[in-house]
Specification:
Blueprint: H1 3-15, H2 18-25, H3 29-43, E1 48-50, E2 55-57, H4 59-83, E3 91-95, H5 97-102, H6 104-114, E4 120-124, H7 127-135, E5 141-144, E6 153-168, E7 178-179, H8 181-184, E8 189-191, H9 197-208, E9 215-218, H10 222-230, E10 236-239, H11 244-248, E11 252-257, E12 263-271, H12 278-291
Parallel strand pairs: 3-4, 3-5, 7-11, 8-9
Antiparallel strand pairs: 1-2, 5-12, 6-10, 6-11, 6-12
Helix pairs in contact: 1-2, 1-3, 1-4, 2-3, 6-12
Length: 293
């Protein structure tokens, strides 16, 4: 098994077809097929289910894909470092949308005060995407509020957060302070995209009661969700820290939902095999310091 095997395997997994992978890599399809067969023989597992028009990666294939991406990423870092020793690799930071809107800037400001000149690169997305990139070593560290599923990642709670159910001040529910689940089941919801920690927590709660949420709007940007709720296109569940101004201005109304646990944690997340460099440790300390406030 060589780096070439892994590069070809990653491309096949990405394309879903050996012919497409062959075209992108400028090699023949039989060569691609042979490499996949050699990998399957080497590990004694099936990496893809073969269907007439496509390939479907197996669970064993997904495991190999995560590790293969990490290996290739480490190799690229090695090449860059050895060929250009003076080159400083930026710290790759992942943050979920809620944290990106409220916390990442003050964290970076504090970090750069102590580590002047150190380079950082920030990637904002939902918890699911941050988890994927941590597993493939595309990110050094993440700050998320959603549930991390992989046992290969270390999760450290750093700050308590509170979710709230909100409606517009002119919404029919605005006259209530406390609502039951049955009161809101027929309401239109404006929620984050699938993979968001906020959405997962609320929809899991609703499904545990034997119901589904009526999601009519889906958005990855909190600002769009907030404006939709203000204009009575639906209600939402959102981090309280994102709507502080709208509550003060009387544009939104917080409703208490019976039985729902509103508190959650913001977490620092990194791979258990990650080498914790002084810069990475320093960043983690600054995250904890900012999150104390």
């Amino acid at each position: 098994m060589t780096l070439r095997h892994l590069l070809i395997f990653i491309e096949v997994a990405k394309c879903g077809k050996m012919s497409l992978a062959a075209n992108k890599l400028f090699i023949s399809q039989p060569t691609v097929s042979q490499v996949i067969s050699e990998l399957e023989a080497h590990y004694e597992v099936k990496l893809f289910e073969r269907f007439p028009k496509t390939l479907c990666i197996t669970e064993d294939g997904k495991v190999l894909l995560n590790h293969a991406k990490r290996v290739i990423n480490y190799y690229n870092i090695l090449e860059e470092t050895m060929k250009n020793p003076s080159h400083e690799m930026p710290l790759q930071i992942g943050a979920t949308v809620t944290i990106g809107n409220r916390l990442i800037s003050p964290i970076l400001n504090k970090f750069k005060e102590k580590y002047e000149g150190e380079k950082t690169r920030v990637y904002i997305n939902n918890t699911r995407e941050i988890e994927k990139r941590l597993l493939s070593n595309e990110l050094d560290i993440g700050i998320v509020e959603g549930i991390i599923k992989s046992p290969h990642l270390v999760v450290t709670p750093v700050k308590e957060d509170k979710l709230v159910l909100v409606c517009g001040v002119n919404h029919r529910l605005a006259s209530k302070n406390i609502v039951a689940l049955k009161d809101i089941l027929k309401e239109s919801f404006i929620m984050r995209e699938d993979g968001s920690g906020t959405r997962d927590i609320f929809t899991n709660f609703v499904q545990a009661q034997g119901y589904n949420t009526n999601i009519d709007w889906e958005a990855s940007e909190p600002g769009a969700i907030i404006q939709g709720v203000i204009n009575n296109h639906g209600i939402t569940v959102i981090s309280e820290c994102l709507i502080e101004n709208e509550i003060k201005e009387g544009k939104l109304k917080i409703l208490e939902l019976k039985g729902f646990k509103w508190k959650r944690m913001f977490n620092l997340v990194y791979h258990k095999n990650k080498l914790l460099s002084p810069m990475l440790k320093g960043f983690m300390e600054e995250v904890k310091e900012v999150c104390k406030k």
